[in-house]
Each structure stands twice: as structure tokens, then as C-alpha cells.
């Protein structure tokens, strides 16, 4: 049978062409719509970073101007001591040094704080660079995750500012690829990344950790809050997508490294898988336990 010589009535052929055109156009409009929504989210994040950097710069600039006035006054007073008796000049110098010492130490502390804040915002800026972005999903890749964790551990060491993370894994993802094909599997990954990105806070960081695994880093969030938030993410996925996910939550502790922290989250995730999937477990440092949905408070985070 010669496929190309099939005689298709003109109205039917025209209808097929119109239908194909409609489907292609609809898909393109959806893709454009998703791109617009993502662009808006990224723009809002960029605006937030710019605003924080502006605040840091303004605060440091004001403090430097104020301290410069104090330094000038100190220099003038020290210059006048040359005309005084040696002993009295020494006592006066000690008093002047005491007066300038306090604001100088305050400025030093403020600059150190500003350095850490700038480092935090720099980590946020890194999420916009291609070398730290997963090309399929548009979220952070492993390099972006490593940079984010390094920043969080530095903040914790300096300010004792804790953080948590959750490791999310798509349930039975291999079956999705086997039944629907890898193109559909890629679409599932993109949809999950989009939903997670829309659901997390502006201060949180999302990264693709592995094939079907994602990590959400939650600064200044304890184990209880991170567990509750992760459970809500699981419910969002179950209610809005055609898949389910399992999650493992862990909080950074003294002496932790990125590897040890993720290892605890992975142990909790393994517990969720063994327990039947489509659930979240947390690791308290000793054992992994399930986050019960009915125990999730509405305002835990």
C-alpha cells in the first residue's frame, strides 16, 4: 500500500491540518505561559536580591561616614596633645582611645556581618548563572547546591544560624519512563521542579540532586518546621501532579558536613520508601521517623 497515494477528501485533510495547528499552537502557548510565569518568579527573586544588596551598601556607607567623623575628631584631639605635659597627655590619649575604640569595634562587627550577608546574597545570585543551573528543569544543579550548602555552613559557624534540608524523590519514576517514555519523564521532572519552585519561600534554595531527586535547602528552619513544610510539599505534589514523592528531612548539627547532612536526609528518605512511599520521614540524629500528616500545624514555618 502506497501511503503517499492515499486519497483523503479535502474537508477531512483540512480538518486534520487545522487540528494539528491548534494542538501545536496550544502547546506553544502553554510553553510560553510557563516561561512567562518562571520569568516573573526569577525577576521577583532578582529584585529581592538587589534590594538586600542595596540595604547592605546603604547601611555600611552610613556607618563609614559616621565613623569617619569620629576618626577625624580623634585625630584632631591627638594633635592637640603635643602641647601638653607628657603625663597628662598620656592620660588624655588613653581617654580618647577609649572613646574611639567602641565605635571602631562596632564598625568592624558590622562590616563582618555585611560580609556574611553579601556572601549569602552572592549565593542567591549564583542561582541565576548557567554553570549552576540544571538545563532540563531550570533549578540549581549539584554545583549550585554545593555552593549554597557551603554558605549555610559558614553562616551557622559564625552566627549559630541553623538550617535544614529535605531530599525528595519521585516514587516509581522508572515505571513512568518505561510506560510513557523518557520525553514524558522529562516533562514530569520539569513539572515537579516548577511546582516546588512556586511553593518554597524566596529564601529557600531548590536543586536537582540526581536523576529524579531534588533538594530544598531551608535557611533558619529547625527540624520541626522543615518537616511540616516538607509534608505540605508532598501533599501539593500528590494533589496537583500525576506523581507522588517521598521525602527525607534533616537539620544541620555541630560537626556536620554537607555529606553527613545529606546522608541523614537520605536515611530518612529510605525509611519513607520502606514504609510504603508517598510520605515524609525526618532524621533526629538517632533514628528516622515519619512525619504524620495530621500532626502538621498550619503555621509551622
Question: Mind explaining what this structure looks like?
Answer:
With 301 residues, the protein is of the alpha+beta class. The chain folds into 2 domains: 33-126; 137-295, Reverse transcriptase/Diguanylate cyclase domain (Alpha-Beta Plaits, 2-Layer Sandwich), CATH 3.30.70.270. It contains 7 helices and 6 strands, in the order αααβααββαβαββ. It has helices spanning 10-80, 86-126, 142-159, 173-180, 182-199, 223-240, 258-274; strands at 163-170, 205-208, 213-219, 245-251, 280-283, 288-290. Strands 2-3-1-4-5-6 form a 6-stranded mixed β-sheet, with helices on both faces. Helix 1 runs antiparallel to helix 2, helix 2 (86-126) runs antiparallel to helix 3 (142-159) and helix 4 (173-180) packs across helix 5 (182-199). The longest helix is centred in the N-terminal third of the chain and has 71 residues, at 10-80. The protein is elongated.
Feature tags:
301 residues, alpha+beta, Alpha-Beta Plaits, 2 domains, six-stranded mixed β-sheet, 6 strands, 11% strand, elongated, disordered N terminus
Secondary-structure blueprint of this entry?
Elements: H1 10-80, H2 86-126, H3 142-159, E1 163-170, H4 173-180, H5 182-199, E2 205-208, E3 213-219, H6 223-240, E4 245-251, H7 258-274, E5 280-283, E6 288-290
Parallel strand pairs: 4-5
Antiparallel strand pairs: 1-3, 1-4, 2-3, 5-6
Helix pairs in contact: 1-2, 2-3, 4-5
Brief write-up:
By secondary structure, the protein is of the alpha+beta class. Helices cover 63% and strands 11% of the residues.
Amino acid at each position: 500500500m502506497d501511503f503517499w497515494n492515499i486519497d483523503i477528501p479535502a474537508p477531512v485533510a483540512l480538518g486534520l491540518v487545522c487540528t494539528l495547528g491548534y494542538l501545536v499552537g496550544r502547546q506553544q502557548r502553554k510553553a510560553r505561559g510557563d516561561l512567562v510565569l518562571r520569568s516573573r518568579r526569577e525577576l521577583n527573586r532578582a529584585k529581592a536580591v538587589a534590594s538586600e544588596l542595596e540595604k547592605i551598601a546603604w547601611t555600611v556607607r552610613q556607618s563609614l561616614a559616621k565613623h569617619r567623623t569620629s576618626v577625624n575628631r580623634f585625630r584632631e584631639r591627638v594633635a592637640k596633645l603635643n602641647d601638653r605635659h607628657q603625663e597628662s597627655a598620656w592620660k588624655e590619649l588613653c581617654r580618647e582611645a577609649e572613646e574611639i575604640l567602641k565605635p571602631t569595634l562596632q564598625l568592624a562587627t558590622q562590616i563582618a556581618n555585611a560580609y556574611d550577608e553579601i556572601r549569602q546574597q552572592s549565593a542567591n545570585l549564583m542561582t541565576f548563572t548557567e554553570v549552576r543551573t540544571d538545563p532540563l528543569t531550570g533549578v540549581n544543579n549539584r554545583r549550585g547546591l554545593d555552593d549554597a550548602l557551603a554558605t549555610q555552613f559558614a553562616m551557622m559557624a559564625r552566627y549559630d544560624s541553623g538550617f535544614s534540608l529535605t531530599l525528595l524523590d519521585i516514587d516509581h519514576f522508572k515505571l513512568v519512563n518505561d510506560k510513557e517514555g523518557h520525553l514524558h519523564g522529562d516533562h514530569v521532572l520539569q513539572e515537579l521542579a516548577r511546582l516546588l519552585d512556586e511553593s518554597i519561600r524566596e529564601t529557600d534554595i531548590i536543586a536537582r540532586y540526581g536523576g529524579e531527586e531534588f533538594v530544598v535547602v531551608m535557611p533558619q528552619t529547625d527540624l520541626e518546621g522543615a518537616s511540616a513544610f516538607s509534608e505540605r510539599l508532598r501533599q501539593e505534589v500528590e494533589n496537583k501532579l500525576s506523581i507522588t514523592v517521598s521525602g527525607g528531612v534533616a537539620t544541620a548539627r555541630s560537626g556536620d558536613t554537607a555529606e553527613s547532612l545529606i546522608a541523614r536526609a537520605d536515611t530518612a528518605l529510605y525509611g519513607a520508601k520502606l514504609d510504603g512511599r508517598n510520605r515524609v520521614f525526618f532524621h533526629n540524629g538517632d533514628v528516622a521517623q515519619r512525619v504524620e500528616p495530621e500532626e502538621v500545624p498550619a503555621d509551622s514555618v
